[in-house]
Amino acid sequence: MDVASEARYKGRGRRPKAGTGLDTVDTHVGGRLRLRRTLLGLSQTELGRRVGLTFQQIQKYEHGTNGIAASRLWQLAGVLDVPVSFFFDDMPDTAPRASEPSDPETPPMGRRETLELVKCYYRIKDPRVRRGIFDLVKATVGSLENLTSPRGHPDQS
Fold this sequence. Notes:
Elements: H1 3-9, H2 22-39, H3 44-51, H4 55-63, H5 70-80, H6 112-123, H7 127-148
Helix pairs in contact: 2-4, 3-4
């Protein structure tokens, strides 16, 4: 474990075994917890109240500072109306070790921009308007992909 990771776990009574990548698992599960909480429009305080925790503990879970016990994960899944497996979706097959550099590119579902877009989308009450926006975005992406793909260019022969 490197010095930064050592300091992160100092005095907390729980350390991942060296080379296990457990801190990466905790971070991934915490990120998925944050994603679902945000999509439901819940604050850390409200989620904490529903499961009998402080917002600080929810914050520690979301940052991966504290791991989530199986029974607590089960409870959170119930409150957030997702299967427990949701927290492990998109988990890399091989979690990077603490000594390996992490990927600086945040996955699209983990970006604040994505969360804000989804929240705004669902604030549109009229389903026809929502569907129109959905169709517009799909058509725009399709047009852009056609412009950049070799198929989208006219044949030069």
